[in-house]
């Protein structure tokens, strides 16, 4: 598996001198091609700054970002971003179809090809029937699907997602998480998701990068050994999920990786034992 993204010694400061604020401090990591990785950390730790640096929207103060081995200076053509605030990222005066087509207008792509790509992307996210509607006529979850479709229409090598499901209800979040995993499997797109939701980071990912409080540094790089086929109920109830969730939670609260693993394993065993007792009790009572 080849390296898609390499971040090396990345730091970013806002301001200068005594009033300078260090948002990101000496971060280094790689993401392999076809991988879905999550970055999870406390609110205000510098996650979004890191993502903007990776996207080429904000130049790092120190260090480098490379895509396909080429240094990122400005936004690469084969990179797309899905932001949290879907209501501000869509043009309300354009139809859904035209919103998805819009970024393609700046490429050497014919009008027919733009329409074809947009239609294909809308089908992938389950919105084929609403291409003629306007964003304000759709629910929040559907608007975020449009944002995802617009990103997919550009056929990016790397898709960045900044807290993409934070503004939708729990059921819609589950649907969008499953949509993201399905698209990643079908297209082999490399995806990097920034989130503060522990459960989401574990459920979505092949890897979870855990960040410290500001200034952000990497506390742990965890491999997620869950099956590729995941279910919002059974996966979240599994011992593996409970263990990983506990491990990430303890790391975010300042624990060491070794402490986090031990505590999370104990918690998972206790959880399974309690469920077994409840099942036994139910059978006895009946």
Explain what you see.
With 286 residues, the protein is α/β, with parallel strands linked by helices. It is 42% helix and 22% strand. It contains 10 helices and 10 strands. The strands form 2 sheets. The chain has a 6-stranded mixed sheet, with helices on both faces. Strands 2-1-4-5 form a 4-stranded antiparallel sheet, covered by helices on one side. Helix 7 packs across helix 9 and helix 9 crosses helix 10. The longest helix has 29 residues. It is globular, with a radius of gyration of 20 Å.
In a nutshell, what does this entry contain?
With 286 residues, the chain is of the alpha/beta class. 42% of the residues lie in helices and 22% in strands.
Furnish the topology, listing elements before pairings.
Blueprint: E1 3-14, E2 21-32, E3 36-40, H1 47-55, E4 62-67, E5 70-71, E6 79-82, H2 86-89, H3 96-101, H4 111-124, H5 140-153, E7 158-162, H6 170-187, E8 190-195, H7 198-204, E9 207-211, E10 218-223, H8 234-237, H9 239-252, H10 257-285
Parallel strand pairs: 3-8, 3-9, 6-7, 7-8
Antiparallel strand pairs: 1-2, 1-4, 4-5, 9-10
Helix pairs in contact: 4-5, 7-9, 9-10
How many domains make up the 3D coordinates? 2
What is the annotated CATH architecture of the largest domain? 3-Layer(aba) Sandwich
Assign the CATH superfamily of the largest domain: P-loop containing nucleotide triphosphate hydrolases
CATH topology of the largest domain: Rossmann fold
Low-confidence stretches: 260-264
Number of helices in the DSSP assignment: 10
Radius of gyration: 20 Å
Q: How many beta strands in the DSSP annotation?
A: 10
Largest sheet: 6 strands, mixed
- End-to-end Cα distance, whole Å, is 54 Å
Strand order of the largest sheet: 6-7-8-3-9-10
Helix content: 40-55%
Order of helices and strands: EEEHEEEHHHHEHEHEEHHH
Structural class designation: alpha/beta
Arithmetic mean pLDDT:
88
CATH class of the largest domain: Alpha Beta
Q: Globular, elongated, flat, extended or rod-shaped: what is the shape?
A: globular
Tell me the fraction of residues in β-strands, as a range: 15-25%
